[in-house]
Amino acid sequence: MISRCVRRAFLCGEDAVTGRNYEHRRGWIVERLEQLAGVFAIDVAAYAVMSNHAHLVLRVDAERAQAWSQDEVLRRWTRLYVGPELVQHYVRNGEGGLCPAQLDAVHGWAETYRSRLADLSWFMRVLNQSIARMANAEDQVTGRFWEGRFKSHALLDEAAVLTAMAYVDLNPIRARMATVPEDSAFTSIAERLRKLRADDNEPTASATDVLSTYDSTQESDGQQKTVAAPPGIAGLSRVLETSETAVAVRTGAPAQSLAPTMEPLPTQPLESQLSTLPRAPLMPFDATGRMAAAIPFAFDDYLELVDATGQVIREDKKGYIPGETPQILERLNIDPGSFIATAGRMLQQFSTAIGTPGHLSAHCVTRNIAFLRGMSTARALFERKAA
Question: What are the start and end residues of every segment in region (Disordered) (predicted)?
Answer without folding.
Answer: 197-229
